[in-house]
């Protein structure tokens, strides 16, 4: 196991009816900006619960944060927060809303051009305090300090992290997910699955606890993912899905182990250029990435095949191939397509995708730093 330091300051408030607990965790004199995506939190009653819990506090609502939150939209929220003298942010939505709120919180305290937080990785030393009410289990943003933001005009999708951008708390009420459309549930399952894979499927470092924890989460997703589509009001299923997605990226399973994230970097370029859902890009890239890089991931792929998919027969190469096929099949059972052609993207786009990776400095990706631009090109071609 590698050396590590693990710290996560976010308080989790889990269970049905817990939105009411906001009153105990938002400062009593706070001036609150509620950030949200579309209108679903109005129609499903979540916004009303939030507003009731805030009581007499001054609050304002900024809605319209996109599924891939854009710099342009978020800067409108920054302007509103300044106009209203906001001193607390409350993200009510899924990972995109929470990611966007992290950027708003950082931008409000940043001395300089806020896009530099992403483009130049300018350090974020302070941020406006914020919490979240999670309504879509997927990204783990409710319990980590990372954020991914797109710049519409530049065609960029970049990330930042800061110790200042952990949520103070996150409310996880599984009943808020009941009204989600199947596409969002399926995307959430795929997103969480690939988050785990990026931290698990690298190379062995004798981290038995992290490996078993990751495998348990993967097995849970293979079980509850299809159930969540079939039984949208099954509280136990939605509760397990919500908590699994949070644990997938709260830092715990990534402590003391090598991490990859090349699949995410290649996926970001697909979203930026073609507007695909984040999870769709991961479903496209991961099986191709594993196929192209199967030799460098050989030992963990064999472990993954046995422990997650119960594949124990055949040669090593046959077991690895079967595990990759099982992964692709799981995504497709969740109704998330896994080929570029499924989204009407042809191979002519690959040059542009690789050029964007080069522009963003993504030339030595992966746990070994050996995912060069040429390897990335091979992955895109394999995914076609």
Task: Give a structural overview.
With 384 residues, this protein is an alpha/beta fold. It has two domains: 11-176, 3-Layer(aba) Sandwich (Rossmann fold), CATH 3.40.50.1970; 181-383, Dehydroquinate synthase-like, alpha domain, CATH 1.20.1090.10. It has helices at 22-25, 40-43, 46-54, 71-83, 95-107, 116-119, 182-200, 208-230, 235-247, 262-274, 278-292, 298-309, 316-333, 350-359, 373-383, and strands at residues 11-14, 31-35, 58-62, 88-93, 130-134, 146-151, 156-161, 169-172. Strands 1-8-5-4-2-3 form a six-stranded parallel β-sheet, with helices on both faces. A two-stranded antiparallel ribbon has the order 6-7. Strand 6 (146-151) and strand 7 form a beta hairpin. It is globular, with a radius of gyration of 20 Å. 48% of the residues are buried.
Number of domains: 2
**C-alpha end-to-end distance:** 37 Å
Look at the structure and name the CATH superfamily of the largest domain: Dehydroquinate synthase-like - alpha domain
Sequence stretches where pLDDT stays below 50 over 5 or more residues: none
Major β-sheet, in short? 6 strands, parallel
Average per-residue pLDDT, rounded, comes to 96
Rg, alpha carbons? 20 Å
How much beta, percentage-wise?
Answer: 5-15%
The ordered string of helix (H) and strand (E) elements is EHEHHEHEHHEEEEHHHHHHHHH
* Helix share, percent: 40-55%
**Which overall shape is indicated by the principal axes computed on the Cα atoms?**
globular
Physical arrangement of strands within the biggest beta sheet? 1-8-5-4-2-3
Instruction: Count every helix, treating DSSP H or I runs of 4 or more residues as helices.
Output: 15
Q: Quote the CATH topology of the largest domain.
A: Dehydroquinate synthase-like, alpha domain
Would you state the CATH class of the largest domain? Mainly Alpha
The beta-strand count equals: 8
Structural class, from secondary structure content? alpha/beta
CATH architecture of the largest domain: Up-down Bundle
